Amino acid sequence: MSASDLAARIAQNIRRQGPISVAAFMTLALHDAQGGYYARRDPLGRRGDFITAPEISQIFGELIGLWYADLWQRIGAPEPLLLAELGPGHGTLMADLLRAAETVPAFRRALRLCLVEASPILRAEQRERLASAEPLFFDDIDQLPPGSLLLIANEFLDALPIRQLVRGCSEWAERLVGLDADGRLAFVLGPENRALTLLVPPSLRGLSTGTIVEICPAAAALAARLGERFAHSPGAALFIDYGYFPSAPGSTLSAARQHRPEHILKNIGAADLSAHVDFAAFAEAARRTGTVVWGPVPQGRFLVSLGAEARLAALSARASPPQRALLESGLRRLIDPQEMGTLFKAMAVTSPGLPAPVGFAETASGST
After folding, report:
1. What pLDDT score was predicted for residue 119?
2. What percent of the chain has pLDDT over 70?
3. Which helix (H) or strand (E) holds 107?
4. 260 CB-contact burial (10 Å; exposed 0-12 / middle 13-18 / buried 19+)
5. Where are the beta strands (DSSP E) in 190-284?
6. Cα 267 to Cα 18, 38, 198, 280, distances in angstroms
7. Which among 65, 155, 283, 345 has most CB atoms closer than 10 A?
8. Is the pTM of this model over 0.90?
């Protein structure tokens, strides 16, 4: 199915049933079984539409592997241990993580690898790349087996469907996807509704008319499900993504195709859709379940605290000049405040009573 076919089908549904939420539109554009973005293509890498931290530098995944090994030891070295990744992409992060885990043999032996992946194309690549780890595949975190869990999600939250709410004259309304006078997809505004006002963070409800606020029910639901699990079994989850803290107004929804911005309502199914993560809202949803939230901290500061520069020095000592330059430029891109170092943030969610994870000292909030 082509992008135009999917757009036509969405338009036909709108004619029959009326405008749809931005969240519903994102779900169709990204995950429709026939024409959705993730169902039809490999989006990652220089030949795709965007590139993520594990593809930029091996240091990223290696440091996270050692971070988990350290945390595993400090929570009592449970065995067996479920190691899960949400949206593993090419499997690059996990391959680097597992290689680093080999330096702590007992940790590596304890791991049972679980991958939560929606894309059949990416799942096939993960199965091949990580074959030696014998990964188990799942469609949803609710399907993960019981037991102690360590979870990693890099650039996962930004792809979850969002709703956009707009400040009206007296209450808030919802920004929807409908049709213009020519029958083309267009953003339209639904009616003001007190119930929508209550969905807006209290600190933002009094903003001026026309202000847009984004909420992500799927992220809140994920936090709640993790909290329910961590209340019964020890566990920790690490989220790394681009976003903001505290909550702030404004539309961050964007589309990308071949590493360039794309119009959100064009090339549907052929362009990636994402939105910045509201870390404050995600943290609040997690805290309500009784878990402890650590951070967020800037990605650059987090990676440096894990020893990024020392790892660069060790790799550079064995590298050729071209390899050394590549290693240095890759790490600089991850930690430089002008690149990914500040916009990207790290946040950990853990069971109550667990020790502070490395890189998050004195940043805890929630249950104690």
Report:
1. 84
2. 94
3. helix 105-110
4. exposed
5. 212-215, 235-244, 254-257, 260-262, 272-274, 277-278
6. 21, 14, 34, 32
7. 65
8. yes
Q: Which domains does the chain have, with CATH numbers?
A: 3-38+163-214 (no CATH), 41-160+216-250+271-366 (3.40.50.12710)
The secondary structure element, H or E, covering residue 305 is: helix 299-305
Q: 133: pLDDT confidence band, cut at 50, 70 and 90?
A: very high
Confidence (pLDDT) at 4: 72
pLDDT for the residue numbered 49: 59
Tell me the per-residue pLDDT of 254-272, one tens digit each, with 9 for 90 and over: 999 887 889 999 999 999 9
Q: What is the pLDDT of residue 368?
A: 38
**CA torsion, ordered 311, 46, 240, 326, to nearest 10 deg:** 20
Residue 3 in this model has a pLDDT that exceeds 60: no
Q: Which amino acid is at 61?
A: G
Residue 353 gets the label, from left (phi > 0), alpha (psi -120 to 50) or beta, of: left
Question: Which residue is associated with the tokens 């916009």?
Answer: 343
Which residues lie below 8 Å from residue 17, measured CB to CB, with a gap of 6+?
A: none
Rounded Cα distance, 38 and 23, in Å: 16
* Paired strand residues for 84: 114, 151
Q: Cα separation of 17 and 237, whole Å?
A: 39
Query: Which residues are 226's β-sheet partners?
Result: none
- Short-list 277, 275, 266, CA closest to 29: 266
**What whole-number distance in Å separates Cα of residue 255 and Cα of residue 273?**
5
So what's the pLDDT on residue 313?
96
